């Protein structure tokens, strides 16, 4: 991504100076009575505790404490008193930038450590952890050195086998990175392959690919854009299942359809799909009373308080309809969501948005920072959601709070 605030694939949080903090304190003091109810954002109030990493250790097929192969088992140790039981993704970050990040579910998540298998598409770089509520650890200070030679596979006795791996344990519709499965036909002969994408909630195969004959021991990839039958699919867990038939008649498939959610999470090829991402990437608090939708004053959005400078991302990708400055709204943008009848407005941005009118943005793309420009009391995001035909063009606003809370829980 082109913006300088994005380092190593993530948005770097700006450091607040004491003069700056004093400024926001003064702003709170001189604020109008309505603002007195504005709660101060507290660290991790909603995002959940931030996982902390103490050490990284290669466990199997290692070339050193922090060096292994594709397929090595690695352990990330936590700090005392901070459980890692709620970790649901281990991210192999590779080189700076998100393009080569690979995230996998842990083999096991214990109080003191998390184990994961080095995925086939991972490259040398730091490792980080993401909890079920989306809180991210800092990357390991020492990178994991990955030798691209895979650990020798278990003998398939000349028979047929299938290895499956998803790139990204959590995937957003319209994000820069789509759901992607990488698979490998084990054995010595080519096999005819079919891949199905299965919705875990009801076991339905929603789409199918038929790549045909695939050579053995050669990684293949398939990408899913989040749609089936021309429709964006619902939020939830999905998994890729790969079937292979050799000329000899031997057949193999990746994991069976997992019947229940806890097992589905651990199934190879499984990932969580969501149509929106929570737009405020840091600690935040929902405003109430005058700061809520309606608010006894025809308030058309929901105010959510966060430190000025907290990164904002597009909750849903789409086209930037407006990027303007207004005496009340301050710096704001309106994005027409892709493939749905909603417009999303983000107001009081600290500066002019990072994106421009007419731009197409990805779900999760940085668009700016929380601020207090225009008529704002305290740093907050004023967020509006409008039904088609859209924002001040014939549509009407809906209460964004239930939507925000839903996205908040899962992203
Ligand atoms: Zn507002």
Helix-strand blueprint:
Blueprint: E1 6-7, E2 10-11, H1 18-29, H2 33-36, E3 53-58, E4 62-64, E5 67-70, E6 73-78, E7 87-92, E8 102-104, E9 108-109, E10 113-117, E11 127-131, E12 145-150, E13 161-167, E14 170-172, E15 179-186, E16 191-199, E17 205-214, E18 220-224, E19 227-228, E20 231-232, E21 236-246, E22 251-253, H3 261-266, E23 270-274, E24 285-286, E25 302-305, E26 311-313, E27 318-326, E28 330-337, E29 342-349, E30 360-361, E31 366-369, E32 380-387, E33 397-398, H4 401-410
Parallel strand pairs: 5-12, 14-23
Antiparallel strand pairs: 1-2, 3-6, 4-5, 6-10, 7-8, 7-11, 9-10, 13-15, 15-18, 16-17, 16-21, 19-20, 21-22, 21-23, 24-25, 25-32, 26-31, 27-28, 27-30, 28-29, 29-32, 32-33
The chain binds zinc ion (ZN).
Descriptive notes:
There is one protein chain. This protein is mostly beta strands and 411 residues long. It has helices spanning 18-29, 33-36, 261-266, 401-410, and strands spanning 6-7, 10-11, 53-58, 62-64, 67-70, 73-78, 87-92, 102-104, 108-109, 113-117, 127-131, 145-150, 161-167, 170-172, 179-186, 191-199, 205-214, 220-224, 227-228, 231-232, 236-246, 251-253, 270-274, 285-286, 302-305, 311-313, 318-326, 330-337, 342-349, 360-361, 366-369, 380-387, 397-398. Strands 24, 25, 27, 28, 29, 30, 32 and 33 form an eight-stranded antiparallel β-sheet that branches. Strands 14, 16, 17, 21, 22 and 23 form a six-stranded mixed β-sheet that branches. Strands 3-6-10-9 form a four-stranded antiparallel β-sheet, with no helix packed on it. Strand 19 and strand 20 (231-232) form a beta hairpin. The longest helix is centred in the first third of the chain and has 12 residues, at 18-29.
């Amino acid at each position: 991504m082109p913006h300088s605030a994005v380092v190593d694939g993530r948005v770097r949080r700006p450091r607040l100076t004491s003069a700056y903090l004093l400024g926001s304190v003064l702003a709170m003091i001189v604020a109008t009575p309505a603002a007195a109810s504005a709660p101060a954002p507290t660290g991790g109030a909603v995002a959940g505790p931030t996982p902390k990493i103490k050490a990284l250790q290669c466990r199997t097929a290692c070339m050193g404490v922090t060096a292994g192969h594709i397929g090595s088992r690695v352990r990330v140790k936590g700090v005392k008193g901070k459980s890692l039981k709620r970790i649901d993704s281990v991210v192999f970050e590779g080189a700076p930038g998100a393009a080569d990040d690979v995230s996998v579910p842990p083999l096991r998540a214990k109080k003191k450590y998390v184990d994961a298998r080095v995925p086939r598409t991972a490259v040398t770089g730091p490792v980080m952890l993401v909890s079920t509520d989306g809180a991210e650890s800092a990357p390991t200070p020492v990178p994991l050195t990955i030798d691209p030679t895979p650990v020798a596979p278990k003998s398939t006795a000349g028979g047929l086998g299938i290895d499956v791996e998803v790139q990204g344990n959590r995937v957003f519709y319209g994000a820069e990175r789509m759901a992607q499965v990488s698979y490998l036909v084990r054995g010595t002969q080519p096999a005819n392959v079919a891949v199905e994408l299965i919705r875990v909630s009801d076991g339905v195969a929603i789409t199918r690919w038929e790549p045909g004959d695939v050579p053995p021991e050669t990684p293949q990839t398939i990408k899913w854009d989040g749609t089936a039958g021309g429709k964006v699919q619902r939020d939830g867990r999905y998994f890729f299942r790969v079937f292979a038939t050799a000329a000899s008649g031997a057949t193999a498939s990746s994991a069976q359809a997992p019947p229940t959610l806890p097992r589905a999470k651990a199934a190879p090829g499984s990932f969580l799909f969501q149509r929106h991402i929570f737009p405020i990437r840091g600690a935040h608090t929902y405003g109430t009373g005058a700061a809520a939708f309606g608010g006894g004053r025809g308030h058309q959005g929901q105010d959510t308080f966060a430190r000025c400078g907290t990164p904002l991302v597009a909750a849903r990708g789409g086209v930037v309809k407006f990027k303007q400055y207004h005496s009340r709204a301050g710096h704001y943008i309106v994005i027409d969501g892709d493939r749905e009848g909603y417009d999303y407005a983000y107001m009081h941005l600290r500066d002019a948005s990072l994106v421009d009118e007419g731009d197409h943005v990805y779900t999760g793309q940085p668009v700016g920072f929380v601020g207090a420009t225009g008529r704002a009391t305290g740093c907050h995001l004023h967020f509006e959601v409008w039904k088609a035909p859209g924002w001040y063009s014939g549509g009407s606003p809906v209460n964004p709070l239930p939507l925000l809370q839903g996205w908040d829980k899962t992203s």
